[in-house]
Each structure stands twice: as C-alpha cells, then as structure tokens.
Design brief:
single chain, five-stranded antiparallel sheet, Alpha-Beta Plaits, alpha+beta, HMA_dom_sf, about 45% helix, 2 domains, Heavy-metal-associated domain-containing protein, 5 strands, HMA_dom, about 120 residues, signal
Length: about 120
C-alpha cells in the first residue's frame, strides 16, 4: 500500500483530480446556464413533473430536465454543444397541456410561441 502512495502516477492523478474539482468556476456555471431553457407554467404538481420529465427524457439533445413545483418552472439542460429549438420545446409543452407562460432561452425571452 505504501508503494501506491509513493507512486508518481498516483500523486499526479490526485493532483489532476483536485485541479478538476476546484477549477470549476462560477463563470463556467454561468456559461452552462446560458444554454439552458427555463420555462414558467401556470400550475405544477407531482403529476406534471412526471409527465414533463417523461416527455423530455426521450428528446434528442436534452441532457437533463429539472422541475420545480414551488417555482412552477421547468429547466431543460441540453447536451454539450446542442442548442434546443425554442419553438420545438414550446410545442412539446403544448402537446402535454403545459403551455409556458414565459420561456427564457439563449436566443431570447418569449411569452408566446416562438417563430423558430
């Protein structure tokens, strides 16, 4: 075991891990948020969360779906290097009966269905 701790590769690996953990800055987090789509809806319950999550889980390009019952919001986090279509997202929400009241995207803020 002591040979493992003295190993240059092990120490280098630990240093790399530490750098990767501490290098994640608030600026990087803000950059990632600029690709997200955040929508507010009129009502949100546990059933809504299930329905929304299930529907967007099958959409190519969506990495994660976060719903907040308290904020009545849905946040879509796209996969790396993917821009989700505001119009497409809006139409998916309409198809499950959850028309957004407001949708904030990297390309703008919408209170009605986007054209593109």
């Amino acid at each position: 075991m002591s040979k493992l701790f003295r190993s240059t590769g092990f120490v280098a690996g630990l240093m790399l891990l530490a750098v990767s953990i501490f290098a994640h800055s608030p600026a990087q987090a803000a950059s990632a948020e600029k690709t997200n789509i955040v929508m507010t809806v009129g009502e949100m319950c546990g059933g809504c969360v299930t329905k929304i999550t299930k529907r967007f889980d099958g959409v190519a390009g969506v990495a994660k779906v976060q719903c907040s019952i308290e904020k009545k919001s849905v946040t879509l986090i796209p996969k790396k290097d993917v821009r989700l279509s505001p119009k497409g997202v809006w139409e998916i929400m309409e198809s499950i009966g959850k028309t957004p009241k407001k949708m904030v995207t990297p390309t703008g803020t919408f209170t009605s269905k986007p054209n593109a």
